[in-house]
Amino acid sequence: MTALAPGAVVDAGNLPLTHAPLPDEAVRDGAPTTAYTVLDDASGIEVGVWEMTPGTAVDVEEDEVFVVLSGRATVTFATPALAPVEIGPGSVMRLTAGMRTIWTVTETLRKISLGL
């Protein structure tokens, strides 16, 4: 279990992250890498920082709400069939478990996520 101390401040925009390549079957274009670190999961809701470098990758989502800190991307929905959305700094988005998405990142994307 990870918990932020009361009154603690984390600079999520500059937090060092360790990237790893995505599995080949997830990559559609380029050579994107991702990184994730948990900031707090003490209350049963996981709060973390996630980042992806430019490229295109597919994903099956978990329940989460996120806020984009930096970067730009287009999220295309394979399932359910929804209109693609452009996201960037300040964008807030809700994803639900089982959604199948395609992430096309044009500028390294960093977000704060709240796993529900």
Give a verbal description of the structure.
By secondary structure, this protein is mainly beta. The chain has a single domain (24-115), classed as Jelly Rolls (Sandwich). The chain is built from no helices and nine strands. Strands 1, 2, 3, 4, 5, 6, 7, 8 and 9 form a nine-stranded antiparallel beta sheet that branches. It starts with 19 loop residues before the first strand and ends with a strand.
Q: Using DSSP, what is the number of strands?
A: 9
Number of helices: 0
Which class do the helix and strand fractions yield? mainly beta
Rg, nearest Å:
14 Å
CATH architecture: Sandwich
Note poorly predicted spans.
none
| Proportion of residues in helical segments | under 10%
Total number of distinct structural domains: 1
The largest sheet, given as strand count, sense and whether it forms a barrel, is: 9 strands, antiparallel
Can you tell me the CATH class? Mainly Beta
Tell me the series of helices and strands, N- to C-terminal. Answer: EEEEEEEEE
**Which superfamily, in CATH terms, is the homologous superfamily?**
Jelly Rolls
The averaged pLDDT comes out at: 96
How much strand?
Answer: over 45%
